[in-house]
Automatic annotation (TrEMBL):
It comes from Aegilops tauschii subsp. strangulata. Residues 13-201 form the Fructose-1-6-bisphosphatase class I N-terminal domain. Keywords: Carbohydrate metabolism, Cytoplasm, Hydrolase, Magnesium, Metal-binding. The lineage of its organism: Eukaryota, Viridiplantae, Streptophyta, Embryophyta, Tracheophyta. Its cofactor is Mg(2+). Its EC number is 3.1.3.11. Residues 205-312 form the Fructose-1-6-bisphosphatase class 1 C-terminal domain. This is Fructose-1,6-bisphosphatase, cytosolic. It comes from the Eukaryota. Pfam families: FBPase, FBPase_C. GO terms for biological process: fructose 1,6-bisphosphate metabolic process; fructose 6-phosphate metabolic process; fructose metabolic process; gluconeogenesis; sucrose biosynthetic process.
Amino acid sequence: MDHAADTFRTDLMTITRHVLNEQSRHPESRGDLTILLSHIVLGCKFVASAVNKAGLAKLTGLAGETNVQGEEQKKLDVLSNEVFVNALVSSGRTCVLVSEEDEKATFVDPKLRGKYCVCFDPLDGSSNIDCGVSIGTIFGIYMIKNQDTVTLEEVLQPGKDMIAAGYCMYGSSCTLVLSTGNGVNGFTLDPSLGEFIMTHPDIKIPPKGKIYSVNEGNAKNWDTPTAKYVEKCKYPTDGSSPKSLRYIGSMVADVHRTLLYGGIFLYPADKKSPSGKLRVMYEVFPMSFLMEEAGGQSFTGKGRSLDLIPTDII
Ligand code: AFP
């Protein structure tokens, strides 16, 4: 009998245990972030369960509404947004919420306010829902100096001020990847326990990767340096092998693969979207934070992504 393996199986590092361990590294901490994260985990479990039942429970299809970008919302988008807003408000640890699904920021009732701002995309990649492709929730957490007087301007912080970020991928398994600024760890939902168990400790992106990930259908609108770079991935001039192309079109899944297998994920600005399609506060910042914490890099094309200062919540 392999006792070492058995010990591993019975000494489970749940996400709560991990976050409490992290908290104990900060003796001044009152556990606010731990409580907030446990509410985010609850939201992820709810969405995971809804995504699993989506076809059966008739949760796919349109909800008959459009979101800020003018896209049709799916029923699951609406549901996930409601779940996260309720979970975050009821945590008592947030003062303002910025959701990709809502046109305006939600300022929490003063009686329920805490010191954190959470920016989130409750269900990213939702155009993939109806065909069962992996989708995910993305979130970034910031500290607000004065919760009683918080304004929208205070929400527009550069990504480098984020204190924690993560995503939950609803795929062949449900995986939550989290960083509180001390490396990146991945947890897989054990459905029989209803707990996220650490399965990917201290994730580090491989220093070299053989995969590039981009929507090449946009190539005719790219600028010359981008087009040249992608051409080199396919036709290297240094004698190396061409890279493989993998593109799911669901950022959580594409970034998750990039973190684990290495390589590059890019969504370049083009003539159609001169500032790029990806949304800074909900997609670019949290994913760039995780990439950097895992030893990788993230650039806008002009500089470090996390140095950007958003001008609006869209
Ligand atoms: P949806 O949530 O509308 O599906 O958008 C997802 C997304 O923002 C991101 O998750 C993908 O990386 C990107 O769009 C895919 O965009 P293209 O379909 O233009 O390749």
